[in-house]
Specification:
Elements lengths: L2 H19 L8 E7 L4 E4 L15 E4 L4 E3 L8 H10 L5 E5 L2 H8 L9 H4 L14 H5 L2 H12 L10 E4 L3 E6 L2 H23 L8 H9 L14
Antiparallel strand pairs: 1-2, 1-5, 2-3, 3-4, 5-7, 6-7
């Protein structure tokens, strides 16, 4: 299917290995995908294959309906969730899912991750939301697709580009970004700020960051007035 798709398979393979390298997954508890919107194709980790047995050729290619078009293995069981995110968040180019401990703790508590300080505000524009609990009917049929649908529902009044992460109630985190590498970076940051929030809670301090400080830190890195880092002009 061309060098472009082979390159994307290699990148998705490397992004999945990064989840292990950064301590975000054990066993087979995670997956990363990327979308080629021009071709209408998605590349994703195969289901249940240990990370030390993966290679770029293991990555599975599907269309946007989930039909496998290249690869000998079954795609991740979370494929349908990834596809819902791609359908509804047009700027998403990659999706990552982990069961990283601190972020998953918030998901299991069915609690949003509050923005407590500037470390969080530098990356996420406010709290990382938690979805509602899924109903018995939603879990009985089309479970993974309905997981995606409750994520989309959660972002009805939120900008997924400004908060590229969600906590699925009783389950765990999903993140996304312009690329699969960006999605993994967002998973790394999410786990880090979740761990900080848990440590802060142990000190009995859970007051959200003042709104003016949140805005200052987020906007200096994001949007048309961003000034953090080196100029690219």
């Amino acid at each position: 299917m061309g060098n472009g798709l082979q390159d994307l398979r290699e990148r998705v393979f490397r992004a999945n290995l990064d989840l292990v390298a950064k301590g975000l997954v054990i066993e087979t508890w995670g997956n990363v995908s990327a979308v080629d919107r021009a071709r209408g194709l998605v590349v994703i980790k195969p289901s249940g294959v240990p990370y030390d047995r993966l290679e770029s050729g293991s990555m599975v290619v599907t269309d946007l309906d989930g039909t496998v078009v290249e690869g000998d293995l079954q795609p991740s069981s979370d494929l349908a969730t990834h596809l819902e995110i791609y359908r509804c968040f047009p700027r998403a180019g990659g999706v990552a899912h982990t069961h990283s401990p601190a972020a998953t703790a918030f998901a299991q508590a069915r609690a949003e991750l509050p923005c407590l300080g500037t470390t969080h505000a530098d990356h996420f524009h406010g709290s990382v939301p938690v979805t509602r609990e899924m109903t018995p009917a939603e879990t009985a049929a089309d479970y993974e697709r309905n997981t995606g649908r409750v994520i989309i529902e959660t972002f009805r009044d939120l900008d997924p580009a400004e908060v590229p992460a969600v906590l699925v109630a009783s389950h765990g985190p999903f993140t996304w970004g312009d690329t699969c590498e960006a999605a993994v970076r967002n998973s790394i940051v999410l786990e880090t700020v979740a761990r900080m929030a848990l440590d802060t809670a142990r000190l009995g301090a859970l007051e959200p960051i003042p709104s003016h400080l949140l805005e200052r830190h987020f906007r200096r890195k994001h949007g048309p007035r961003a000034y953090y880092g080196q100029s690219r002009t």
